[in-house]
Amino acid sequence: MPETIPLQTKQKIRDCTAQGLIYLAVLLVSAVFVWLLTDLVRGGIAHLSWAFLTESPHDAGRTGGIASILVSTLLILLVALITAIPLAWSTAILMAEFVPVESNFGKTVRFSLYVLAGVPSIVFGLFGNAFFSIYLGLGFSILSGGLTLACMLLPILTSTAEAGLRAVPDTYRLSAAALGISRTAALIHLIMPAAAPALTAGLLIGVGRALAETAALLFTSGYVDRMPGSLLDSGRALALHIFDLSMNVPGGDNAAYASALVLVCLLLSINILAMKLAYGLQRRKIMT
Amino acid sequence: MQTDRLLTGVLRAGAVLAALVMLLILCFLLLESWPVLTGLSVFRFLTDASWHPLEGAYNLMPMLAGTLLASIGALILAVPLGIASALFIVFFAPLHLASIYKRLIELLAGIPSVVFGFWGLTTLAPLIGEWQPPGASLLAGVLVLTLMILPMITITAYTALAAVPKELLQNASALGLSRWGTVRGVALPAARTGITAGVILAAARALGETMAVLMVAGNVVQYPESVFDPVRTLAANIALEMAYAMGDHRSVLFVSGLLLMLLVMVLSAMAGLLEKRRYA
Questions:
Q1: Domain boundaries in chain A?
Q2: Those residues with Cβ within 8 angstroms of residue A267's Cβ, 6 or more apart along the chain or in another chain
Q3: Which CATH number is associated with domain A51-287?
Q4: How close A41 comes to chain B (CA, Å)?
Q5: Model confidence over A55-73: pLDDT tens digits?
Q6: What is the pLDDT of residues A239-269, one digit of tens each?
Q7: What CATH number does residue B239 fall under?
Q8: How many domains does chain B have?
Q9: How many contacts, defined by CB atoms under 8 Å, are there between A and B?
Q10: Assembly ipTM
């Protein structure tokens, strides 16, 4: 039939074009990713050394290292996690184990966290400045930065933990109940250990988010690059250090490259670890 | 049992606290912007001559335009690339390549905005500057934002496409549809709601993004005449001026934060409704 042959070739051409375009897009994205990474490595590797990690910054960060910055970052992270984890995990346990999905209480809490997840980080910064720094009088300090970050981490920690708990098969709960174990004991000895990899993965994702954060810390934990003496001192986070070096310090590019390389390496290893843990455990739910 | 009751009580307290955080944020934003919301007419944000906060001129429109233009530009670039990436992973790539590419996208999602901004500042902006000075421009902002929202669009589109029932695809090939025919005629329509929800979430992310845009977009308050003109977004404005803002100026910054949050909330509510419809 003479008419079907042109149609088939037309289809073939269309298929090939579509496939070609898709491959092109993928190639483009991969190329840009590789470009970005090689740029960072090339710019940062020369300046990176053991001394860079163990010395404090001098001359606004142009020389010296990032030791005090790393300490501040770690302290901010610890404050954020210590505050956020109890709240997030108790919410997750309640939602997954005790409260029906359709109850009003569950719906309200879930809606509130859903909205919170969408709040832009600069708005968290404004809130943190108004509430923690000024209203509670914590000033520009590691504590107010960490508490602001804790608010930011609540939704992601809760949703990953809830997904992890829900992934534990119901047979566990039923068997525990059949054996007359209280729900508390079942939770502590059975369900939490079973969900531990998912909980850890969620925790690592949260750590990644916290390390990457800049805008929320701008007016809460402040700019000071000295070694912090207490939680009420101002301390500069690593991401903020990169921002400051590249925008406000002429000649700070080398140190900024090296700091960016440190940050990206940290985040990549944390994320890879999280992926490994989450793999096979409701992976899709946890990663998105 | 008593321990159970105790535990539920403790957990409930934690959950209530977690839920209250959102309310607290809203309250404090409102409280801080109250002097301006009640003292100044809302129309001043639209009709003041310019943005000169120290002289009491508070026109937010150029920055709102900058925010919207940067986000729309990023969506125009990132949506086709993201959907193509998701199609590649689900339908076109050999299995091992698909998983490698998916990993790569997930890692791209983990790169912090300040690093994207830094890269844009040291690499992209000078490149654009050689071609069309000054380099730090709307275009640079759009490109950096594209990279930042691309993983989000890809991952949500992938999730939606992977959830398309196998029978649909098998029926399509049984009817003799070609691969692209199956994708366009069956898979994409079936996954449309999920993909749209992802795009809306990405738009929300783009609107609220601060650091990366702040570092590459040039931060001049103006309506851009071309993509090579520098712009300032609302979020970048907050980050730039918060440090020295006092009185009404500070309140106006909180108003712009509130505005940004409302925009984002509307978008994420839309995405939430779509998701709900998908599972209904």
A1: 12-44, 51-287
A2: A208, A211, A212, B110, B111, B112
A3: 1.10.3720.10
A4: 12
A5: 888 888 888 889 999 999 9
A6: 999 999 998 888 888 899 999 999 999 999 9
A7: 1.10.3720.10
A8: 1
A9: 257
A10: 0.90
